[in-house]
Specification:
Shape: elongated
Strand content: under 5%
Mean pLDDT: 85
Number of helices: 23
Largest sheet: none
Low-confidence stretches: 1-22, 71-75
Order of helices and strands: HHHHHHHHHHHHHHHHHHHHHHH
Radius of gyration: 32 Å
Amino acid sequence: MEPESPREPPPQEGSCPPGERPPSALGQSLSQIVHRLTSQEPRRGKARSAALEDLSALIEATECDELLEGGGTWRRGMPEVLGQVAEALEKYAAPPREQEGRRRADCEVAEKAAAVGLLFLKLLGRMEAAKSSLVGPTWKAGLRHSAAPIYVFALTHSLEHPWTSPRSREVAGEVLSVLLRVTPCASVAGFLHGEHEDEKGRFTVVMELLKRDLNKESWKNNPATKHVFSWSLQQVTRPWLSQHLETVLPPSLLISDDYQTENKILGVRCLHHIVLNVPAADLLQYNRAQVVYHALFNHLYTPEYNLIQAVLLCLLDLFPILEKALQWKGGAARPTTHCDEVLQLILTHMEPEHRLLLRRTYARNLPAFVKRLGILTVRHLKRLERIIIGYLEVYDGPEEEARLKILETLKLLMQYAWPRVPCRLVVLLKALLKLICDVARDPNLTPEPVKSALLEEATECLILLNHCSQGQVKDLLVKILQSCEDSKVVNCIQKVQQVSEGTSYNGT
């Protein structure tokens, strides 16, 4: 007799294990097909294709009640066998390990996926027909055992990847649609976590299936596993995700710790989703939040701008959780925070950085750190001053993203740390005026809307600087207004003077 489980070495043909009744003819046929699909012997190719054809003919020729119930002659039951068949088909169509020169292998995978997808459609069609027949609730048992591998197959081949083709994506997308209709679920999120808060979804079963390929030794054997895990994780949100924390956190950390930047970013995005959708108390328990923080912090030493962007966004959402336990009782200096530590490292990297993409990434996130720290930004004021002046001097391309974000940072800095601004008046005034003159005289490098945005931001900074310095900026700009002939520069200075007129400086 052929083996009953595709995951274990097949037993020798012969009698059934003690205590089990002989399988029905249908069960025996399905088990033989599973064995042919999962066998590691060299006889692949045509033999496995023939197994698919036999399975297709068997599904078409078998009545719904017999396919889903198995005649009651096998103790293990037909639903479990259908689950084995679904798992075998999913593994048969899975892409091979990433390697060079795999274009031919990818084409073969796409062809297999299209054929397997058609089989799944036939099987789901039988289950859908059984819903309205006299078979009763047995179709639910069959769906319960086969839904997870069918879902993993559909997700593996419905998104655009090197191992998919337009045809395989179309078939896999149809498989997913029919699976949701048979379930029935309105969305993939409902399929995974349940349509209602008290309803048990299928995310646990899906993770059990993925877990076999999500350990340190095997997670790269199937290049689709990480994408299926990541995409599925994104669908499970509050309040459902917290109950799966022990299951999803280790794979996310594992993927983020890889040497490939693509995998690092994927893992960091998984961690970010967990941070956003798991209660702070659960993340603080067993020091999980600290583990995530150190995993993210180490990525800040890499020169990959897209990875830095993903890490900084995740850290900004992690800081409130990490700092919940920190309480300032007054009478002493406030303790440094994780945000201080990260900002210090960012500023260290920003100062000598010459690569434009990294400069933009750092500048893009700087305002959020200033907002987070508030008045405590004064701890980093000297270095921030050098970086602001240095970045305002450098042209950043047509969109001028870095300089616009640095101006936003300067405005926030003057709002939070205004008592420290007057002593830096001359340095900041020179930097802002130089920027205004450079932008006004720029003949054609920067589009006009960007120029206008730069001049407007710089003017707002001058107004704030004037306010912080008790009106000193207005007095210093009088002589410039008399001698300057550039209309754009004059317009900016006049705006500063108009806003300053009638303003009282008794308090800031």
